[in-house]
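Backbone shape codes:
===
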Amino acid sequence: MNRNHGRQQITGDPANPQGMLVLVTQFFEWMQLKNFSEETVETRQRHLRYFINWATARGITQPTEVTKPIVEHYQRYLWRYRKRDGDPLSFQCQNARLVSLRCWFRWLARSNHIVYNPAADIELPKLEQRLPKHVLTVNEAERIINQPNVAKRLGIRDRAILETFYSTGIRRKELVRLCPYDIDAERGTLFVRLGKGKKDRMIPIGDRALAWIDRYLIEVRPKLLVGERADRLFLTNQGNPLTRTRMTEIVRKYVDAAEIGKRGSCHLFRHAMATLMLENGADIRYIQAMLGHSKLETTQIYTQVSIGKLKKIHTATHPARATRSSS
């Protein structure tokens, strides 16, 4: 089985107006015209590349040749597929690839490129309701945050990054897009522009995070700027905006250096912020607003992680609550 297919370009005949390559390109142009987020377009491109290359390798070059049994065959292929490390694709990943496929065929049917949608009735894998694998305690979060060497300018930048993640729980892509004017120190707020679902939101940010951002803005950022061309808040040593990949590397480095026995990166602080605020009495709807969740059900997963109060009740009421015996 070819394990490198994800790195290939979409195959096909650019001269065939009814070929997969031409029609999938038109689909991506339509998504951009309809103002889909850049991230969504990139994800659909990646997912559909997998399918089109799989289909082309089997002699299927036009969407009109795709039938429901072929889509079901592709679904079985995804289920059997093994990655480089030998692990299967998660059901979340399988579901996402099939959803992208279904969206493309729905567009093809509506645009009269095909008579019917062969993926319309495909039964998607049932998604698992998984809890966050690692949730930081207060001491663990503080241990990570204290890792940067603030005697160096990039250490000050990194401390400001970690403090912002911890205080606000914003997503990685939201943090890399922050601009200096998105921080309102007087009001104690942070403005998230075009978060998930292309939605803006205003959220609070703590005084400690603001203090480190202010120090970064005064002592570090002016020295990182090259010709004042960057409008992003957090910059690289070369004066460029930090990428999402680089942000992950920075945070993971400090998580590993803290030696807390937990793995992860930026999302660790999102989980920690939500869980710790819940344990300290915050209403779930305030957590929903902070995280930018459109549905309360998405936020409620943290009520299952936040077991501090349940632990206290268990300790106080369970009949086997006596001190532990070594025997």
